[in-house]
TrEMBL record:
PANTHER family: HTH-TYPE TRANSCRIPTIONAL REGULATOR RUTR, HTH-TYPE TRANSCRIPTIONAL REPRESSOR RV1474C. GO terms for molecular function: DNA-binding transcription factor activity; transcription cis-regulatory region binding. Residues 68-128 form the HTH tetR-type domain. This is HTH-type transcriptional repressor AcnR. Residues 91-110 bind DNA. Keywords: DNA-binding.
Amino acid sequence: MVQVPGSSLPVPAPRCYFMGGPRNAARPWSIRGISVLLAPTGAPHQGPVTLLLPERTTVPKVSPDHMELRREQILAGARTCFAEYGFEGATVSRLEAAIELSRGAIFHHFADKDALFLELARRDTESMRDTIAEDGLVQVMRNLLASPEDYSWLGTRLEVARRVRTDNDFRAKWADHQKLIDEAATARLVTQKESGRVRTDVSDKVMFTYLDMVLDGLISHLASGGDVEIAEEVLDLVEQSVRTSE
């Protein structure tokens, strides 16, 4: 009889025979990668060996719908955690508490915390891109002032801006996502210029950079509890600066 460390109940096993003569049972050896120790200890063994192998278990199948629901649960909880603590402050323990799942369950779906944050940022970028394409950057800023709670990407955008400034690796990963925003905003500007609503004496790149800087400033202003009425007047000034004179 052979005792296999970590085994549970005995199951039928093949009969194994020693080759090349007796082996000292006091020394561990292995069969197909399983470490075993012969008994009785110290006695040479020349007969057949019966293995006690771990009990086989069947892994339950999980439906794609269940997997998707679990991912959405993870992302929703992570968004709350990142918004409250920021990326650095959102420790794994805090993520577990916010998501109400173990770290094993969380990181079964996402490789690490960075991958989790990037997925949130990717989704928020697409949402922001669609809003810009529909309404333009200035209107996006007005909507932010009117009802910031309707823009789930607001907190993520703040964290993205901070990490782009301070984290070279993240800046490289973020480049493709930022490109989506740039393309949507530039396409909107081209359309506005063609319709005669936006001045044409400033290049698209300069115009977009100007509005993007104003957007980042507005988000920081709101995050720090700045005066909303003053911000509205600033946006009036911004809009006047990009519109054609009528």
